[in-house]
Write a structure and sequence with these properties.
UDP-n-acetylglucosamine1-carboxyvinyl-transferase, Chain, four-stranded mixed sheet, 13 helices, binds shikimate-3-phosphate, single chain, 438 residues, 30% helix, alpha/beta
Length: 438
Amino acid sequence: MSNSLTIKKKIKDFNKKISVDGDKSISIRWVLFSSLASGVSKAKNLLISEDVLASINAIKKLGIKSVFKNNECYIYGKGLEGYKYKKNITINSQNSGTLGRLLLGLLVNSSYPIKLIGDKSLSKRDFKRISDPLCKFGVKFKLKEKKNLPLTIMGSPNLKPIKYYENKGSAQCKSSVIFGGLRTNGTTIINAKKSRNHTELLCKYLNLPLIVRRKKKYDEIKVKKAKKIKPLNYKIPSDISSSSFFIVLTALLNNSKLTIKNVNINPSRIGLIIILKRMGIKIKFKNIKYYKGEKIADIEVVSPKSIKSINCPSKFNSGAIDEFLIIFLVAAKAKGVSYFKNLGELNQKESPRLKWGAYILNQMGIKTVVNEKSIKIYGNPKLKVNKKIIIKNFLKDHRVFMTCIIAALSFGGEWIIHDKDSIKTSFPNFLKIIQKLN
Ligand code: S3P
């Protein structure tokens, strides 16, 4: 069966209500916290995607049982010291940076060397950003070319607390060090640039010894050794990053309205909404509620009459870090030139996304000026694509694939987009939801 998708027709206007898959960041964190809990944890609406299944396989390799029953997932934690370390364990993080990086924080006390491998995309990504701080706890690492997978981690029985400045705005780095701190006597202090805070919220809900002091530009986090983790029953809300494709699709059409139900709108994740509102898109949060520290709402979006360009303040970057490819499509239809800066981190993702963003827009006939960190997009409110576009060799980056589908459905042309299977990492139901809208 072909693993590419051809789209030749724009989508018709719609007025629909949909639900998208569970939040990936929270799903992976639920698996990891539950693997160390004392007792059985249960999740509803867990994202069943390759990244999350890789997380379940990882804890299985460490001797922790998990089963699926009636659409629910159960993890049988054996307490903080319940991992079974033995010779020759290899854990495959597949495509998931979140799994690989967070898990290393939990392995700081491993009593045997553990090998971590990943797929082609993950093997190109930077793991020095994790091994550097974890080494300071007393952990030893061997990394390919000092920064990549495969790597081997060898934990220490004598961990020392550390002081760590996280200055990339990376929730993965911050969370990995929090996990290291939860295993270490003494107080680990982290000064972290703002980034998504699901790990901290889960620590708070679980009464773990972690204190956050929010400062203007960064958070000061103090974490101590955890004594016990209680089982974590969790109903995972829908993922705003998955929702973003449909929010943008509605924004790029003329007479459409969409409601996406029960989405996690944690303030550290809503950069897309803030940016799109500034560009003139009408978006409302309805039925706002709180669940275990997370904020959840239905998102309602209506097609705008016109789209304004934006000089995007860098303070919105972290909250929209996974959404820039799709935001660039909105800028392509805006009146005027949009500018997005200080986005070097985009090139650290599943593929170099700044480069891919510019490439996709150029294929559509949109002028861009791009460098390692920023992009200028010369919008065209009358944009129509009339040519054949083939998108391939993008390291199977799920967000490149889904962005191209939205571009094809909104702007027309004939698109042949390779590596359809890439959606399985984060959003297996993506194409089924598109069909519902058609
Ligand atoms: C994630 C953090 C972000 C994000 C990724 C998920 C997380 O990565 O891009 O998709 O769940 O912690 P960085 O921490 O590298 O910014």
